[in-house]
Amino acid sequence: MSTSIDTADQALSRKFCVVDGKPQDIADDDDQNVLQDRTVELNAYARARGLWLPVGCLVDNKYEVVSLLGAGGMGAVYKVRHNQLQKEMALKTFKGSQLSREAWPRFEQEARAIAKLDCVNIVQVFDSGYGPQGVPFYTMELLKGESLADKIRNHGPLSVSQTLSYFHYVAIGLSHAHKAGIVHRDIKPGNIFICDPTPGAVATVKIVDFGIAKLIANQDLESQKLTNLGIIFGSPLYMSPEQSAGFPVDQRSDLYSYGCSLYETLTGKPPFEGKTSLTTMEMHQRQKAPSLNEKLPGGNFDKGLEQLVSRLLAKNPDLRYQTFDQVIEELKIIFKTVSKDPAITSSLKTSNEKPLKPNIAADTLEITEEHKNEPRSRLLSLTLALILISIAIYLFNQNTREPTQKMRKATSDSKSFAAATSAASPKSYCVEHVDGSKVLSFPKGVDLGKLQLTNARIGLNRQPHEALGEIFIAPGTYVHLIAGPQLSENPALFDGFGQDNLQSVTLNFNLDWNSKHLKRLTRFTALLSLEIDDTELDASCFDLLNEMRALRDLSIPECHTKASDILHWKKLGKERQFNADLVANLGPVIEVLSASDSIRDISLQSCKLTDRDLQKLGRIKELERLKIGQNRSITIAGVRALSSLKKLQALDLDGIAYDPKWLTIFKALKSLDFLRITYEPEQKNEIAKLRNQLPLCKIDAKEQIIADDLH
To answer: What is the extent of the structural domain holding 21?
Structure first.
């Protein structure tokens, strides 16, 4: 059975063979006293792990526990003997400490799922039931050998020929499971078992641990409840992007995990290894995996094998192989070019699977020897067919993954790139899935800036990261683009995004933006928020904003514009958020805002505001956040006008000298929970008093060393 043992227990567990329970350094005829001592130690290990079944106990009145074989994150596996049949088997049950509400239905589901499968490459299940204190169990064939994970750990990367042989069997087993309506959901080297070969035969490969298998069809109420919980099951190192995001998966998720396992077997390392499980899952969702040759320099991996792995690891499930039958066909073609080992060739030709349909098991792989005796015309026909298939695959890959020829030739210099792509709009970066998720796939050599992803439903709130490679977008994710230099140089690059791909865009400072860029943004039907920094904005620019129907938040800090131009924006006063920091003479704009019952957030820092302006702002009854720092002409009369803002939660008066008379005003703001102020060095006692009087408000008080009036 599987040999995955928790890291903290590896030193102890490895003293015993995970196959037959015997100490690894003791032969059958070694000193029995030593063997007995080790058995006692093994029992102690079981007790320390909180396992239910001590050695020697009887389960279900027929299975005698012989030894502990291994323990994973949830279950424990024992070697048992059926007292009536005198047959040794493996018995799997829960660790006592893992009997959670979710674990019980998962275990029952596992037993039902495996019992439906009849394939030599899938571990055989014999029986299931309930042991001591109602703990569920099932029995299965006792395997002798080692897991693929152990083989990689002990020997490093395997040869290409050996790897293809093993993964041919894995593909057969998973093809069988998928046709029975079962998705494994946890394919990894630890769940691929290499059985010891019998004399004169090749090793048999078995898939184990369907502990989180999902029944695609005929789901009963309990299995539907499991799915609806949204619990993320699986191993982060091998988890598909859609599975790590907590969304429903189909058989294509197994294809991705199979690709990760194949990758590790060939290179010795999985494609992604983050510092934590969360960062690893994020890498699966947004980073492109290094090629095999990049991961293992000197590996000299075949181009066809690289393409196979790359397609298996596609972020978009629609771009992966759709079935394992397709994978088997690809393995057959690749193997002909990379293997000269007759023993391995024989293992690929001969499948032990009972065919479910004609031409899907052994027949699909019997090419190498049979075609030696075929007529030349048939061989020529086969060669032509393979060439046509290769061309079709090449064109498919070009249409789905590669950038245009002009983009491939572009240099890192943004102006050269802009000149090379200005003649036509780019192909779409986005591929949408039927479940509402998306994959943004950016052409090589294109730096569009950074993306920040937020999704409250799944607890996602990532820091901005480069818009490079492939990025998985879960349904309901808020996507914020911080536009980079190449978008500034070539506005047409905005057209690669789908109309509903972006919810927020920032046109960053120190770059040239104009009405051409804004015109491109008008096609984004889901654009909710727009920030334009340090840009010349005239009336025509605000007219373009009127075409952005969904826009509700606008930030124009440091922009060179006039109040009369801003008034062209018809949504002024109807938005949720407005930021015009460092834009002066905004009296007419503030007049419109003062009548708003929609706006919640206003920032007007360093705008040369007057007390009269604050009196107008004090009329906005729904206002929750107000930033008016660095407006040093404000007096207590203006601040007093804010006392009517009963819903105000955050107030920023940074850079305005604190007046102790403000305390009464702040106490009137019953919803205030954040306050930022600046005080003179001699006012420290007043600040202490302020904190004491507003115990529920977080106060960010900064001592002002230089008090020169800059305005």
So the answer is: 7-140
